[in-house]
TrEMBL record:
Pfam families: 7tm_1. It is found in: Cell membrane; Cell surface; Endosome. SUPFAM superfamilies: Family A G protein-coupled receptor-like. It is a multi-pass membrane protein. The lineage of its organism: Eukaryota, Metazoa, Chordata, Craniata, Vertebrata. InterPro entries: GPCR_Rhodpsn, GPCR_Rhodpsn_7TM, LPA_rcpt, LPA_rcpt_EDG2. Belongs to the G-protein coupled receptor 1 family. Its main location: membrane. It comes from the Eukaryota. The chain crosses the membrane at residues 34-59, 71-91, 111-128, 148-170, 190-216, 236-263, 278-296. This is G-protein coupled receptors family 1 profile domain-containing protein. GO terms for cellular component: cell surface; endosome; plasma membrane. GO terms for molecular function: lysophosphatidic acid receptor activity. Residues 50-294 form the G-protein coupled receptors family 1 profile domain.
Length: 335
């Protein structure tokens, strides 16, 4: 594609920009396309269902009406939106890409950027909240509901802005030489910025959770010298497992995709397109794992899950037990 530096290609179609970076839009569905779309849609269904379950549990149980659970609910909302955005992508990919207008393409990518950015920032906000709570020796944060709402609004504002930035001008429609291979209408500099922002969030979480772990471990070691109880050691082990699950999941799900974005952003000339879709599916798994890690490990959350599921499928718990769900709260754990 011959580029005129004084000309912007606003009237060009999506195929023009794909041709510019030598990225092929398949004419027909290939076996690998079916695999990626099939796996992606399956993951989306589980993401949507699990995060709806988490949001319903937080809404129903008054024990969860605290700042940390409001943030968990917002995380579930972000992950739910991520599942919907990714499902939208699955129905607008492959051979269907040619039918997209420029703005439809930006919408497709913007939904993904917004949802995944909101999910990552939520994870960082939860890490900071836990840090503040544990270091002030509190069970729940003293943060007011007003501050929580403002924090949640700020999270979504940042995420929405990140999703709109390419549409508002940070793209390569006037600079074809700076076009990304993975996202042919995106500027490579934007991809680098987005990847670095998420890596920074990851670094903050690593530092915060490391400080929490070291603090709790030292405190429990000092306390264990004055008591014979094993509860302190169990707390340390449980915290260690949770920390490594959180960090391990994030590293496994996000690092490959972020590295791929950085490689594309610096124009490394390597085959980033070969692994593009697989890295996106892997990153989406983080939205599926979040409700499992942050919620399922909570016993009260598990009990609320059982209540919800027993209400949806009362026959699974027996007719007599179904009545107990409504009239005998103490028996809700058994449905």
């Amino acid at each position: 594609v011959n580029e005129d530096k004084n000309f912007c290609y606003y009237d060009s179609n999506v195929s023009f920009f794909y041709l510019n970076v030598n990225k092929t839009i398949p004419e027909e569905w290939r076996p690998q396309d079916y695999v990626v779309v099939g796996l992606g849609l399956t993951v989306c269904v589980f993401i949507i269902l699990t995060n709806i379950l988490v949001m319903s549990a937080i809404f129903m149980n008054r024990r969860f009406h605290y700042p940390i659970y409001y943030l968990l609910g917002n995380l579930a909302a972000a992950d739910l939106f991520a599942g919907i955005a990714y499902m939208h992508l699955m129905f607008h990919t492959g051979p269907w890409t040619k039918k997209l207008s420029i703005y439809q393409w930006f919408l497709r990518q913007g939904l993904i950027d917004t949802s995944l950015t909101a999910s990552v920032i939520n994870l960082m906000a939860i890490a900071l909240e836990r840090h503040q709570t544990i270091f002030t020796m509190q069970l729940h944060s003293s943060m007011t509901n007003r501050r929580v709402i403002l924090l949640i609004l700020a999270i979504w504002l940042i995420a929405i802005v990140m999703g709109l930035v390419p549409t508002m001008g940070w793209n390569c429609m006037c600079d074809l030489q700076n076009c990304s291979k993975m996202a042919p209408l995106y500027s490579r500099s934007y991809l680098v910025f987005w990847a670095v922002l998420n890596l920074f969030s990851f670094t903050v979480m690593v530092v915060v959770y490391t400080r929490i772990f070291i603090y709790v471990r030292r405190k429990n070691l000092r306390m264990s010298q004055h008591t014979s109880q094993t509860k302190h050691k169990e707390t340390v082990v449980s915290l260690m497992r949770t920390v490594f699950m959180i960090l391990g999941c994030f590293v496994i799900c996000w690092t490959p995709g972020l590295v791929l974005l950085l490689l594309d952003g610096v124009n490394c000339g390597c085959g980033v397109l070969t692994y593009e879709k697989y890295m996106l599916v892997l990153a989406e798994f983080n939205s599926l794992m979040n409700p499992i890690i942050y919620s399922y490990r909570d016993q009260d959350m598990r009990r609320t899950f059982k209540r919800i599921l027993c209400c949806l499928w009362p026959r699974a718990g027996g007719r007599g037990q179904h009545a107990g769900v409504h009239h005998k709260p103490a028996q809700t754990d058994h449905c």
